[in-house]
Specification:
single chain; alpha+beta; Alpha-Beta Plaits; 4-stranded antiparallel sheet; globular
Length: 156
């Protein structure tokens, strides 16, 4: 697109269907690299990809010709297919429906990258459940939500 310039930094979060702890250590880092590759293959610049046993954080630059919903469809469809082809889990692997997306300015990028890179450390602390983390993001961004349509949450 000629004469179109953007700087859109998106932090997206999505979870494993049933919130099962299926993203195990034996393939977790490979999965995050694979997701970065999916973004790159579609002309999106990955800034950070990380997560924990039951969810993923993806921070990337969104280009104008790709919608956020299309980017998330590409990431979730291709990564779940890859996990199933590699047989990293017993049975069929699926992501939960939906995702959340948050935008940040360029001046906030390093802070967001640091937060995402430290996901394992963050979640090893007993009080830092995914539910608490996720609801805090929704609240910080003042997003109105219906509790009936959140990810499936279980006691951590």
């Amino acid at each position: 697109m000629a004469n179109t310039y953007t700087q859109v930094n998106i932090h997206a979060v999505f979870a494993v269907k049933g919130r099962e702890n299926l993203i195990t250590e034996n393939f977790r880092s490979e999965l995050f690299q694979y997701i970065s590759g999916i973004l790159k293959n579609h002309g999106l610049f990955s800034l950070a990809v990380n997560g924990w046993k039951d969810h993923v954080h993806v921070f990337f630059e969104l280009k104008p010709e790709v919608s956020l919903s299309k980017a998330m469809e590409l990431v979730k469809t291709n990564s779940s297919k890859w996990i199933n082809e590699k047989k990293f889990t017993k049975g069929k692997f699926e992501w939960q429906r939906g995702y959340s997306g948050f935008s940040y300015s360029r001046s906030q990028r390093n802070k967001v990258i640091d937060y995402i890179v430290k996901q394992e450390e963050h979640h090893k602390k007993a009080q830092n459940s995914f539910k608490k983390e996720y609801l805090a993001l929704l609240d910080r961004f003042e997003i109105d939500y219906d509790p009936r349509y959140l990810f499936e949450f279980y006691d951590d």
